[in-house]
Structure prediction request, 266 residues.
Amino acid sequence: MYSAFQLGKKYLRYYFTASNSKGHGIHSPFVFDLVVKVLNDRTDYAAYKEVELQRSFLLGNETIIEVEDFGAGSTKGLKKQRVVQQIAATSLKPKKYAQLLYRLVNHFQPTQILELGTSLGITTAYLAKAKTDAAVTTMEGSVAIAAIAKENFRTLSLENIDIVTGNFDETLAATIASSAQPYNFVFIDGNHRKEPTLRYFEQLLAKVDANTVFVFDDIHWSKEMEEAWEQVKQHSIVTLTIDLFFIGLVFLRKEQKAKEHFVIRF
Prediction:
């Protein structure tokens, strides 16, 4: 993991070298349309207030739970006590990016959504509210955290979410096999290490199609994640990527014959 100073330097470099945030100078009609209609959509959707209210409750929740962490820097089987408000403060995707996920789903209208890394369910809620008739499957390693996420889904009256608990290494293959339809939208936010990230991506390619949108979280979080992002970009099935620094968008569009990679200020 990069230090705050290292990450800050990288962000400044990104900010001053990225393409214009308004889409000026972007010659791809597909990407220009995405910038104008999604990245720069300032609509105050009703779902924003509902989900952010739930986030505020979590930020005030002083309940202590025992969690098992399977992510980067963890030891398998290690349990430790965590305060819910601490998890909410450090692990939940910031509003800016969580709401971008909502707009991406709203724009592409996927019918099958998969999220690797439920946490307390805030990003899941945004995904599910963006298309309430989509089937949303979300995966979380910790049973205790998943239980809180389920309560949040009930509070938000979300009935289109199925949550799978356990180590992704043990649950992902069965989850993919159980889906009758391809996943149209995949958000990968469950493990910030190179090898698992690439392995999950390869596994998921068995159950996607040319219209699938992949979203990778924290692509510049560490040297490993930057290496994973570069390998995803070069994969033979990938035709287009967009680097927004804190997240990366990946497209498999067959109509695009030549690979294109964009870095856009967001």
